Amino acid sequence: MTSKRPGAQAGLRRHNMSLVMRALAAGEKVTRAAVAAEVGLTRATVSTLVDELLAAGLIEERGAQRPGTVGRPGTALALSETGPAGIGAEISVDHLAACVVDLRGAVRCRAESPAANRGRPAPQVLAELAELTELVAKEARAADLRPVGTTVAVPGLVGRDRGTVLRAPNLGWEDVNVAEALGRETVVENEANLGALAELWLGGHESGHGKLADFVHVSAEIGIGAALVVEGRLFRGARGFAGELGHVPVRPDGPLCSCGAHGCLETYAGEEALLRAAGVTAGPALRTAAEAGDEAALRALEEAGAALGIALSGAVNLLDPQAVVVGGPLADLAPWLLPGVRKELAARVTDRQWRPEDLVTSRLGRDGVLRGAAYTAVRAVLDDPTQWIAR
Amino acid sequence: MTSKRPGAQAGLRRHNMSLVMRALAAGEKVTRAAVAAEVGLTRATVSTLVDELLAAGLIEERGAQRPGTVGRPGTALALSETGPAGIGAEISVDHLAACVVDLRGAVRCRAESPAANRGRPAPQVLAELAELTELVAKEARAADLRPVGTTVAVPGLVGRDRGTVLRAPNLGWEDVNVAEALGRETVVENEANLGALAELWLGGHESGHGKLADFVHVSAEIGIGAALVVEGRLFRGARGFAGELGHVPVRPDGPLCSCGAHGCLETYAGEEALLRAAGVTAGPALRTAAEAGDEAALRALEEAGAALGIALSGAVNLLDPQAVVVGGPLADLAPWLLPGVRKELAARVTDRQWRPEDLVTSRLGRDGVLRGAAYTAVRAVLDDPTQWIAR
């Protein structure tokens, strides 16, 4: 039987090589034998692939491993600290940032500058961002790293071309071509999506069955951002709008939201609502007030937590995720916010097993989005190492 | 390079054969050339596959097609009206039903009996159901059909083995092994899931980009059932509990729900709440009252519609489906229920394109679940025709 499947063999090689790279990304100092056992290929196949990856400088040997075990000790393998790297950049209303991560996901260079980006001309913002990314790229090249792609995180809606910001209300942007301004190998992605991907790739959370692969990730800066990861992939929805937790109705007759509807989660737990209720003007002040036991701040956080819990209960009832992860700036407020979230989830997710520990706080902190952006290009190398070898 | 992938060639044959079968399932009287063009295989490959499928009796020729076009007219192909068939069975609180569908999805035999199943011993219910399925199977065999599998729809939670009902509160069932009672080739599935799959497979709805493949399907009998279809597959969630729209909070301080939470959708739009608000005792009476313009009935339906719309707005904001499909018994009430749903969706899905026509009513009527159950076995034949050929 004939079939139009040219390159099936090349596809297989790519697939197997990616399996090996990802096994090394997940494990620490693993041997050829361990990789073979994990990915289900023969040792001979793995050895061939490993030799190619060593020659390409994508992985390196780290000396004998497990000397205590029976038989010839295997040589430990690890992803390289040099070679392909990813650049991440972030545009938020009050700052710009850029960083470089290596194949292992470690942040190797980082630069940041405060900037009042709301309403500023986009070309100006992008020129400054280009300077920052060039700065970290230069530093990376000096450390023998080769940046292979840049991902820019934006608080807005990104076009299907992954190069244009269609709409970023908090920046005042419409139809801004970021890829053109920053160069061909640049892609743009919504910050909430990158926060969720960072959690998937680098978060280090486990579920009962291995790595956490089905979760709702919630973060917030001005708005409430959420993103869904399903079976280890970002869930974008039919038109790319999935994850709008901020506009899930909490109280149908509640306050008017900027979107035109009433009682959306954002009117209770968005930054503006939260700061107003707490009587402070900025996020750090809210945290300080909460730490000092300020009553208005504590009440505001408790109520925002309850609203978040109500909206998340709906999401959990619909999606049945393994976990809900709270990340980004919200994670800083976890001690005061999460009790309310937890209480509502316990009261409203009644039809299935839901344990308090299924609500977790991200360990990535405020840098989650930026690291997720940077790791995007690295992930592309792990998914298809052959492309890198062919260069 | 070697690899542990025995049977890659067999897999390819299975895949290609399935492509051909599914092209025939989707189209009407298509030729070999049309199939080749549609599925992206060469004409020679398609001809070989078609010959095998003809020999196995899975498809049949229907005479020359498109005589008006240039060149030799192709012979029209169609799925057989005989051969493999699927049995569907349904257990609800007030009736049992069974049917047989052929490869084309047409219902060929159907049997039904009213039965007060709530609280009845499960073995008694299953014995009656076995009689019904045997009745339709016998009729099917007389029509030259060969039933290859039975799927039983239940209003409850099904175990991972797909043979056991873990919990069906409205029947009073816990841990009932249905597969054992009905025979080896029987699987059990939640009715809401089957309603959604029926819509996917047989609903005939189109989206802007071909067949509708991403949607939320809502149905209701006693509770509110919903199921999510994503990229043409049932979305089950991490633990199989996805789609619990009935327990999405609509008003956090609303009436106490049977689940223990307050203000769940079911407390507004579940059958019990709806009948109580309308002042009637059964579904058909509600429809009659609404048709007669009874004020209490109309108000009850309007309010239930609004509650459904609020919960669905949350679902749409989270999931970004192409459409929301209302099916099952709810579809009978569409004229009175949907205006409220539509209004809330318009008011609350504000951040993306949402058109009134993205809310649709199923054309499958009350038989959607039963047809989905029956078509499950047929779908398995379409997905792997080689298994059938090997028999």
What report would you give on this structure?
The structure is a homodimer of 391-residue chains. With 391 residues, chain A is an alpha/beta fold. Chain A folds into 3 domains: 8-79, Winged helix-like DNA-binding domain superfamily/Winged helix DNA-binding domain (Arc Repressor Mutant, subunit A, Orthogonal Bundle), CATH 1.10.10.10; 83-196 and 369-390, Nucleotidyltransferase, domain 5 (2-Layer Sandwich); 205-363, ATPase, nucleotide binding domain (Nucleotidyltransferase, domain 5). Helix content of chain A is 42%, strand content 23%. Chain A has 14 helices and 17 strands. Chain A has helices at 8-26, 32-39, 43-55, 122-142, 178-182, 191-202, 266-269, 271-278, 283-291, 295-319, 329-332, 334-348, 368-383, 385-390; strands spanning 59-64, 75-79, 83-91, 95-101, 107-114, 145-154, 157-158, 164-168, 173-177, 186-190, 206-207, 210-211, 215-220, 224-230, 233-235, 323-326, 359-361. In chain A, the strands form 5 sheets. A 5-stranded mixed sheet of chain A has the order 5-4-3-6-10. A 5-stranded mixed sheet of chain A has the order 15-14-13-16-17, sandwiched between helices. In chain A, strands 7-8-9 form a 3-stranded antiparallel sheet. In chain A, helix 8 (271-278) runs antiparallel to helix 10 (295-319). The mean pLDDT of chain A is 89. Chains A and B meet through helix 1, helix 3, strand 14, helix 10 and helix 12 of A and helix 1, helix 3, strand 14, helix 10 and helix 12 of B.
What descriptive keywords fit this protein?
alpha/beta; 23% strand; five-stranded mixed sheet; Nucleotidyltransferase, domain 5; 391 residues; Arc Repressor Mutant, subunit A; homodimer
